[in-house]
Design brief:
The protein is of the alpha/beta class. It has a single domain, classed as Cytochrome p450 (Orthogonal Bundle). The protein is about 45% helix and about 15% strand. The protein is built from 13 helices and 16 strands. The protein has helices at about 10, 25-35, 40-50, 90-100, 105-130, 140-155, 195-205, 210-235, 245-250, 255-285, 290-300, 310-330, 370-380; strands at about 20-25, 40, 70-75, 80-85, 165, 170-175, 185, 190-195, 335-340, 345, 350, 350-355, 360, 365-370, 405-410, 410-415. The radius of gyration is 22 Å and the shape is globular. The two termini are about 45 Å apart. The structure holds protoporphyrin IX containing FE.
């Protein structure tokens, strides 16, 4: 079938005219996420390229875009104009490999220690004023500081120099704070985790509001600048301490622009779902009154040992309740792709896509929404532990780096199998779920 050309539909899709299809079934969701040849992430790339840069989760594995200029990245560093040809495989492979091989136990402990450190601080401060209680606003004063803490363990970011530790901020970002820009309304530095939300939403939400799009531009540019400064700082001062993961990423990524983009890009991929799943899980447990039951079960599972002393028991006691809560209220709850051509999304019988059954047909330029929430709830219905259904919340299961495309003669060769269940962009850090 003929490839589409870079018409208006692709340059800037008109939301009033664009058809939208919703895939709610698990097999249909997986069909769309797997078949990157017919369902492209080019629109996500178009949206984020001008702020946080063309991060690889938005790139196509064959590096082919309907509007060919999308595959070129023009940017300015230190007053020099540069152009880079995007290459999904070479940009993503080593970074995904590093994330994919990070041990599950370590991720669990990292998360546990980060959360504990924040709570211990509150406890200590309360004791200083002879209180045996404290109050904290869950998102701004617990989850987001804990997320900043965990990224310090993983990447050494926020480092307090290039990126500051802070929750969401409404302040404008300026180069220099002047008298007309008092510190109450403006700031000079990007913050983590606060500035990682809007760029993600601006790119992967199907219809982000004008406010989200504005903040995505401001925050996305600021975090990319911070990423570039962080990389330059560590390249020039090689003796500055680096975390295990950051040392690895520096070693395997020779291009500093790609390195900066990957550091920022992986944080954009991670921070919004970490933040949202934490809130959703806790809401679910409090709303149903199960929080206290899970806490008691957790304590029993430790069998009098510390968490470090009984990691397997600690993780086992949480696996089912966390999976169930995530399948009920997943984040992201939805992803989208854009149809490149007329393609059939097959109807299914049970979990099997049958070629004999009719289905829905997409046409060039259609927005195809994949509802992760209905797929994960469907899985929860089939397996009430939620443990087999959780993969879909991570965009499918990653079993290898790379996956979902073939490499031939050193070149990326489109290779697809809609039933393979191996989506190219599936999260490389699913095992890190515990950290969130
Ligand atoms: C509860 C936590 C998380 C959830 C629910 C989640 C979910 C997802 C989903 C749905 C995708 C696929 C997006 C798409 O197909 O458009 C994805 C990709 C990705 N995630 Fe995660 N994620 C989580 C945590 C993390 C963490 C902790 C990291 C890094 C440390 C991370 C790094 C990435 C990267 C790099 C990709 C892109 C992979 C590629 O394109 O090759 N994620 N994630």
């Amino acid at each position: 079938m003929k490839d589409p050309t870079c018409s208006e539909v692709w340059q800037n899709p008109d939301w009033k005219k664009q058809n939208v299809l919703l895939c709610a079934g698990q097999p249909q969701v997986m069909q769309v996420l797997t078949d990157w040849n017919n369902f492209t992430s080019e629109e996500q790339l178009r949206r984020i390229k001008t702020n946080a840069g063309p991060i690889y989760v938005t790139q196509q594995p064959d590096n082919k875009y309907v509007c060919p200029e999308r595959g070129l990245y023009e940017y300015t560093v230190n007053g020099h104009n540069k152009t880079q040809e995007l290459n999904y495989h070479s940009e993503s492979f080593q970074t995904n490999k590093a994330l994919f091989s990070y041990p599950e136990d370590d991720a669990f402990l990292d998360g546990y220690k980060a959360g504990k450190k924040i709570l211990d601080n509150y406890r200590k401060n309360a004791e200083k004023i002879s209180h045996n209680y404290f109050k904290a606003e869950l998102r701004r004063e617990y989850f987001q500081p804990a997320i900043a803490e965990i990224w310090q363990t993983w990447y050494g970011l926020p480092d307090g120099k290039t990126l500051l530790p802070e929750s969401w901020s409404w302040k404008r970002i300026v180069d220099v704070i002047s008298q007309t820009d008092p510190a109450t309304v403006a700031r000079t530095h990007a913050v983590c985790p606060g500035d990682f939300m809007a760029p993600s939403r601006g790119s992967v939400f199907p219809r982000p509001s004008e406010a989200i799009r504005d903040f995505a531009q401001m925050h996305g540019k600021a975090i990319l600048k911070a990423g570039r400064e962080f990389v330059a700082l560590h390249r020039t001062n090689v003796n500055l301490p680096k975390t295990r993961l950051i040392a690895q990423l520096f070693k395997v990524t020779s291009d500093d622009e790609v390195l900066a983009r990957n550091i920022i890009g992986t944080m954009i991929g991670a921070i919004p779902p970490m933040d949202a799943n934490l809130r959703n899980i806790l809401f679910e447990w409090i709303d149903t009154g199960r929080l206290w039951r899970h806490q008691a079960a957790f304590k029993t599972a430790l069998k009098g040992k510390t968490v470090e002393g009984n990691l397997a028991g600690a993780m086992d006691s949480l696996r089912t309740p966390v999976s169930q809560a995530m399948c009920l209220r997943p984040a992201p709850d939805m992803l989208f792709r854009t149809a490149k051509r007329t393609t059939r999304i097959a109807r299914s019988k049970g979990n099997d896509i049958s070629s004999k059954l009719d289905g829905a047909w997409t046409h060039e330029g259609d927005m195809v929404l994949v509802s992760l929430v209905s797929a994960s709830q469907q899985s929860l219905h089939n397996d009430p532990t939620g443990r087999s259904g959780i993969d879909v919340i991570f965009g499918g299961k990653r079993v290898a780096v790379p996956q979902g495309y073939e490499l031939k003669d050193g070149k990326d060769k489109p290779g697809q199998n809609p039933n393979s269940n191996l989506p190219v962009h599936a999260c490389p850090a699913q095992k890190w779920l515990w950290a969130g």
